[in-house]
Write a structure and sequence with these properties.
Elements lengths: L3 E8 L5 E8 L5 E3 L9 E5 L2 E5 L9 H28 L12
Antiparallel strand pairs: 1-2, 3-4, 4-5
């Protein structure tokens, strides 16, 4: 598997910057959601790339934060479905896609 992660920063002539994180993970990817800490957050780590997602007010999310979290959940569910579809399309011999840790 060609797993890797990287971060780039592109600085424009006007001084504005665009930071991009690309993750193409393998089994070493870590996704953490600490429960019971009275704040909402999720972190994704792979190689030397780290991403933290929190509401604007992690201990007191707004209605907009709830909408954004639901949109993220929908997007990740759609991503998982597309990965599964493409996996099935490209592996007609039936290579398992089940999580061995499950």
């Amino acid at each position: 598997m060609d797993a890797y992660s990287y971060t780039t920063v592109q600085v424009e002539p006007d001084g504005s910057a665009l930071t991009s994180v690309c993750m193409r993970p393998d089994e070493r990817m870590s996704v953490l959601y600490p429960r019971g800490k009275n704040r909402a957050q999720i972190s994704i780590t792979h190689a030397y790339a780290y991403m933290l997602i929190t509401p604007t007010r992690p201990a007191a999310p707004t209605a907009e934060d709830v909408r954004v979290a639901r949109k993220l959940a929908e997007s990740f569910a759609a991503y998982a479905a597309e990965v599964e579809r493409l996996h099935a399309l490209n592996n007609p011999q039936g290579e398992s896609s089940e999580d061995p840790a499950a």
